[in-house]
Amino acid sequence: MMLAPPPIRVRVFLSWCHRDVALKTDLVERLEPNLAILGGIDFSWWEDSQLEIGEAWRRGILDRLSECDYALLLLSPGFFASRFVTTEELPRIIGAKASARALPVMLRTVPLDGSRTMHGVENAQVFTDAGKSYADLAGALRDRYASNLATAIQGRVQGRGWRRL
Predict the structure, then answer these.
(1) Which residues form a coiled coil (predicted)?
(2) Minimal CB count within 10 Å: which of 76, 105, 113, 134?
(3) Minimal CA–CA distance to 98: which of 122, 128, 121?
(4) Which residues have a Cβ under 8 Å from the Cβ of 72 and sit 6 or more positions away?
(5) Domain of 93: which CATH number?
(6) pTM reported for the whole predicted model
(7) Looking at the domain assignment, is residue 129 inside a domain?
(8) Which of 68, 121, 126, 117 is CA-nearest to residue 94?
(9) What are phi and psi of 87, to 5 degrees?
(10) Is 1 within a domain?
């Protein structure tokens, strides 16, 4: 009898705009169970709301970012308007000194036509549901979005994407 290999441990840093807290919470509540049931991967994640009382917030955020394997970027106009996100987080995720691999997700619609400043995110494949952001959907369509996002994350972590010719 062959034993299953141990699960891949994946640490995810959640990067988001506090103006989007309700939408972020809704997505995370749908995404977490979908990630939990993926075979072969053990996900854990961190977001700035988990900072401890008295902890230096900037140092705490940057330390967690340097420790993560992937950064889930919840994109929105507010995300790109956040000075901390654009000057501190994104250079460590998207820039030349990137320590984490980006998982950009369209939380609220941001045009991808070059008309907005996206600080390098425009060069990465952004997850949408047939071009729709999470905010564009409701009910069961949000459940499907979270399920499809979990599958896309699984594919990225497990290095899928190659197709036989």
Answers:
(1) none
(2) 113
(3) 121
(4) 12, 13, 14, 15, 45, 103, 105, 153
(5) 3.40.50
(6) 0.90
(7) yes
(8) 121
(9) -100, -25
(10) no
Could you identify the residue written with the tokens 């993926």? Answer: 38
Structure tokens at 103: 């998982």
Domain count, the chain: 1
Average pLDDT, the chain: 91
Residue 162: inside a domain: no
- Give the Cβ contact number of residue 143 at 10 Å: 12
Do 69 and 10 touch, CB atoms closer than 8 A?
yes
Q: Tokens 């009898």, residue?
A: 1
> What range defines the domain where residue 56 resides?
8-157
CA dihedral 125, 159, 161, 29 (to 10 degrees): -60
Q: Which residues contact 31 (CB under 8 A, 6 or more apart)?
A: 146, 149, 150
Tokens of 33: 């169970």
Residue 9's contacts (CB-CB under 8 Å, 6 or more residues apart) are 42, 44
